[in-house]
Description:
The protein is α+β, with helices and mostly antiparallel strands. It contains four helices and six strands.
Amino acid sequence: MKQAHVLSDTEKRSFFRIDDVAIIKHRQISEEHVTSEAYRHEQARVNKLTLKARFESMSREMQPLLKVIDRSHSKIASYLEALDRKLNLLSEYVIECEMEDMNIEPQHINIGAGGISFTSPCPVMVGAMLELRMVLLPESTGIFTYARVVTCSKLDKKTDDCHQYRIALEFVNMEDDVRDLITRHVLFKEQSLLQQKKASASSKE
């Protein structure tokens, strides 16, 4: 008798997806491009998009140490928290500038830790590699990653902005901290939806 495969927590997160709205920009690239000198030169600008997320990740890592400092040096801890808030303000300004440069309206997506799907005005070949730049809302969390096209199908009806194709992508070589950002975002949105449903049910009673 074949033994059933028990899903790990990572696999469970990959299957769990939500319908959402985000700013997303993509372009097709070659796999060789990722390792090229031109690509490495681009990274300085790309890092602006992910600056806010990196700062938030570092702040979470620093929290246990900050609590230790606060027990014996409360004024130093308060000063460090103020510095953290200043950095957060700076990162929020940077991400707002990047969003203006992208000049794209938010669109409907379906996203999880394992992949994403969205509509596009143009078809993309199955198996193609895409570079993705996303801003998850409402947190304005910048995401930069790669994904491979799994399916591309023509829609029966045109969506907003004449998008005619539904593209499904699988994230490729995604860094763990980036995957964790998406996982936290998905869980946050799911919890918010559950709270809204509970509030709506309570108001009808």
